[in-house]
Amino acid sequence: MLRTTDPDFDVRFRRIVDDRRESDTDVASDVSAIIARVKARGDEALAEYTQRFDDHQLTDDADWRISPEDCRAAFDGLDTALRDALSLAADRIRAFHLKQRPADSDEIDDAGVRLGARWRAVDAAGLYVPGGRAAYPSSLLMNAIPARVAGVERLVVVTPTPKGKVNPLVLAAAHLAGVDEIWRIGGAQAIAALAHGTGRIRKVDVITGPGNAWVAEAKRQLFGVVGIDMVAGPSEILVIADGMNDPDWIAADLLSQAEHDPDAQAILITDSEAFADQVEDRVDVQCAMLSTGKVARRSWDDHGVMIVVEKLEEAIGLANALAAEHVELAVDDPEPFLDGIRHAGSVFAGRLAPEAVGDYVAGPNHVLPTGRRARFASGLSVLDFMKRTSFIALDDASFARIGPAAAALAHAEGLPAHAHSIEVRLK
Amino acid sequence: MLRTTDPDFDVRFRRIVDDRRESDTDVASDVSAIIARVKARGDEALAEYTQRFDDHQLTDDADWRISPEDCRAAFDGLDTALRDALSLAADRIRAFHLKQRPADSDEIDDAGVRLGARWRAVDAAGLYVPGGRAAYPSSLLMNAIPARVAGVERLVVVTPTPKGKVNPLVLAAAHLAGVDEIWRIGGAQAIAALAHGTGRIRKVDVITGPGNAWVAEAKRQLFGVVGIDMVAGPSEILVIADGMNDPDWIAADLLSQAEHDPDAQAILITDSEAFADQVEDRVDVQCAMLSTGKVARRSWDDHGVMIVVEKLEEAIGLANALAAEHVELAVDDPEPFLDGIRHAGSVFAGRLAPEAVGDYVAGPNHVLPTGRRARFASGLSVLDFMKRTSFIALDDASFARIGPAAAALAHAEGLPAHAHSIEVRLK
């Protein structure tokens, strides 16, 4: 627990801001070897790696791919409540992202120059879906639906199926989102296959989705060959709460982040030290009851922070320094905080907006910048699957008006062919 | 010269598409050593590297920084025509980018959930400006103005000044764009200083701007610590021209790209082989006259391509495969081409839109995706200096309506603390 009145507060707070909680596993050379091998030997390399890492043999088509029929069957096989919940989530995510579609522009300005820009979807997108513990159907929806809304024609999922085991919830989500292909491969080899293409798998233009250190490193190395989303680190939440909250609610919110990962971080800022103590007590009680209590406990013990401020408005400056992935505003009037917080992935305003609502069904994307990256990065959106082409057109009058300035600048920069391409038209 | 009717056209065209023209200089380990040293030893390391690489000694403040007064003096010292040309460029770039500023959203949907997103500028941006031959004032404007329009409060330029020499045109552009700080450092060490900060130089949130292989690799390695723009390769132009053009004009356009760099690429697609021959002749004539003719000649000989199609509409599909940085449409009616070309950095429509107009004064950004990256990337824009924070707020009714679905999904994903944070509020 830190108090802003502590003499060493600045130093300790700075240490929290600077702590990235990211293990620098050096997998770069392993990953570049895997990429080179997949590029050179294609499907053969994929089969070898999948045998070795996932204990799954890729021989027949059914070993390689999960069919749309299997996805539909998985969806139909869900119990009704879960199927409805997944459908509600998909509908709301779609509705929110539909409003993100950017407008084209096309205007003629005062000089008579026609200027504009057109947004178009990428042709094909690849989504990585982790296997095992972190195989979340909600992540599949959050990655696939923005791509579909953008107008991506070909939507490809890669996911490892260790010992051949598939996750029915993930398949159900793939059905809902309308994924076109699902390949049973994972790791850096799957990213390499999506980026470079193989005999079976055609290459894509953009790759998104979470993964382990190998997957993240492969995306980083292939950035430029394909587009990628932001490399993500451990998750984090900042809860700004006055003393009028039920400590049980706030403890639950902190733990909902902590249960993800021992490296996750939950931070509480409050103006009541008594309230902070109550929250701490409730964290202990809840941890003992949770099936994920061990992970949550470690995250809270290693990375949990409580900061007591004199006035809750001080939290705004601290929140901007922390640039957290998730920020909850558990106060009656969240508006001044919402206005003041410039750096955050997503804000959950008011006492009835626990982060978990946003993780699943609210509509905004849950793929958000971590590790203070909200200073410069945004959550995943339709724009990650689109790109903009600008255009200009001139007539005689407008060309005569702005052409000479361009020629003058070209000469000044020592680029005579640039100048000539204008001057030859001015004659 | 390729003809779509050639039997081996597909193979040869595919080879052109796949040729990235990018030298894989392996500077990764040099660069990571430089970054580590700057991170550890700050200004001292910067001074050592600057002495070694730029033959410039960093001792007094005046060695480290170029003052705003020097920039103003450089601007005032330009001849009138050049000053006016630079001002026209700045005004038009500003006007175009002002229209890119994204709108915030804030709505209450059918379920009673308040949903929205707010765009905010990053706090500080760093712009790399190369020294020597490629020190282009137009590039400074194209990077700095979008940052300023975005609302970035602190705009920092780093630029090497070999043997202490500065480029007055670059200083004049910095004055026009309103740059806050200019540091006389370059290379990977300058990128490291911007990303991590040193005693003298406070760190920034986003770094953009062109540079050599060391600069590009440093940006790549520091991607995630800061935001970066797309790593750029050699420039390229695709000119789609019917046989009715003046071959002199089209030759000039091709050479305006070729003169940049021996690795630059100029491609002509036309439906008239006779016209292609005439263009080839004019390329020879113009090359002989240009002060940059040697570079342009090498680029044209090594990478220049002419493709003859039967019908000019075939150029649309080829253009989408090439996904070129610049596409010129030298035809009477460019509209069908503009509609059909999905993948291009920027399109120059009609016979009076040579690329050079767009490079300097038209208004759209000239920092564009190269090496087929227009498949997934856009030109530099105001959005590169902003980020979006989404937010939600719920009342009792809307929480009761969508909360249970979130809890059901949380349970299904094995995240009980997520579920509890909702259930505890539903009681």
Automatic annotation (TrEMBL), chains A, B:
UniProt KW Oxidoreductase keyword: yes
EC number: 1.1.1.23
Gene Ontology, cellular component aspect: cytosol
CDD domains, A to Z: Histidinol_dh
Catalytic residue list: 325 (proton acceptor), 326 (proton acceptor)
GO biological processes: L-histidine biosynthetic process
Binding locations of substrate: 235, 257, 260, 326, 359, 413, 418
Binding-site residues for NAD(+), renumbered to this chain: 128, 189, 212
Pathway: Amino-acid biosynthesis; L-histidine biosynthesis; L-histidine from 5-phospho-alpha-D-ribose 1-diphosphate: step 9/9
GO function term, MF aspect, one: NAD binding
HAMAP family recorded: HisD
Role this protein plays: Catalyzes the sequential NAD-dependent oxidations of L-histidinol to L-histidinaldehyde and then to L-histidine.
Protein name (Swiss-Prot/TrEMBL): Histidinol dehydrogenase
Organism from which the protein derives: Tsuneonella aeria
Gene that encodes the chain: hisD
